[in-house]
Amino acid sequence: MEQWDVIVIGAGVVGSAVARELARYQLRVAVLEKELDVACGNSSRNTGMLHAGFTYKPGTLKAECAVEGNKEFDQVAAELGVPFKRTGKLVVGFTDHDMENILKFKAIGEQNGVEGMRIIDKAEIESIEPHAGGDFAMYVPSSGILDPMAYTIALADNAAQNGVKFFFDRKVTAIERYIANNCYLVYTPQQTFRTKWVINCAGAYASQISEMLGYPNYPVRGFKGEYFVLDKKAGQFLKIPVYPAPNDRGGFSTHATPTVDGNILVGPDSYVTEDWEDYKCTKDHLDGLIRDGSKMFKQMRREYFIRNFAGIRWKRVDEEGNVLDFKLESDQQHNPNTVNLVGIESPGVTCALPLARRAVARLVEVEKPSVNEHFNPHRPAPKRFYDMTHEEQAAAIAEDPEYGEIVCRCETVTRAEIRRAINNPLGVHTVTGIKNRTRATMGRCQGGYCETRITEMIEEELGIKPTDVRYNHAGSYMFTGPVRSGKTDDSASEGSVSA
Predict the structure, then answer these.
(1) Are 17 and 155 a contacting pair, CB within 8 Å?
(2) pTM: predicted TM-score of the whole model, two decimal places
(3) Which is nearest to 188 in space by CA: 168, 206, 207, 202?
(4) Which of 51, 131, 255, 285 is the catalytic position?
(5) For 233-279, how does the pLDDT look when each residue is reduced to its tens digit (9 = 90+)?
């Protein structure tokens, strides 16, 4: 059995950030993830906002990490090659009570260290964003937008490039501590891992892992939110996120947010769910998004809708149901060599690296590991064909003719980019994994043209059968067998199998 210095449980944005921070030291680190890729939970099911930190209680870990993560993100994005725009944000209001809450949270933001916030009138709203609703607003210049999937992938890629090993399809079922050997055994259905340290970054399932480590199974509550994705044709009408005034507790209802790639997200709403992976969307809630989203974004039209999705924020709560701060703890007396993170929900993307530094500092304080002098914080991010100039495109095609074949017409993704994504540093081979690395299938037709071509390339590149190709999860096989008579699984081609 291999011996590891550290096992990180969970490869969402926080787990991937922790892995990258651990790679700064001479440690043998493994990350265990129950899904087939990083960012399969709420790390990919959110708005993609870089939050400023004005709705979080002063002095909390959430407030501290949000402001810290916001201020450093220009450098982080440059190091990791992650698309990022510091767009600012409009928090709009219509009533006297809206103004009261906006002023209340402006004061909280100033106490937290958020800079540059100011109240503006309707005329200035229209000068900043003519398609935003609201009679007045708070303008927050430090807010920004990013692709949370691309960010999580970049963190994990950089960790892997610096020696961290990722193990997918490894759901942790039990953890045992062996005092005599000063180690833990971490059990998964496929294999058992032996390690000195365990860091819990399991997201929605963090409370269960917490209990396995000897900490409490902290009560959490799932707040589900649904979203619409609008076509890039709508993107021309919105360049800055538009949020409604926060409610009395600092929460937001439906907002409109541009993405770094030119789409618009409208949502989320918020309601309680008991199902750990309740990602279905419902007509009543989508109708509510249309009603409430139209107040924020004047061009909220059905003709722009191309997709919907849902996410769940698992918040740590007390006995009365009040939402609590992030939990980051380490108990060397009772649960030695563990770091436990629970209730890491919004703004988890903004807070990921600050949380990771604090988590890894607990280990460093005890172990005092040697610094990895070969650690490279820079992750090479190949330029997308879509973003190249005509001259750059011509040069790319001359070097590799596969840049001359478009696989995804909507997003202008080439065969060369798909092939590169199939050979990614993490060894992820799902259709969604290719999608998240290239944007193929994310356009207007949602994969109607390119998805079969992508699956064919996966088969060819890996030398696998069509019936072995998976969409995203462990059992999500794209095809069940041949359609045409006379074909077998071994001889079936891309055009002769059926989902």
Answers:
(1) yes
(2) 0.95
(3) 168
(4) 51
(5) 999 999 999 999 998 888 888 999 999 999 999 999 999 999 999 99
Tokens of residue 72, six digits: 């450093």
Helix axes 148-161, 13-22, angle to 10 degrees: 30
Phi and psi for 130 in degrees, rounded to 5? -60, -20
Is 285 an annotated catalytic residue? Answer: no
Count of residues for the chain?
A: 499
pLDDT tens-digit map of 16-45: 999 999 999 999 999 999 999 999 999 999
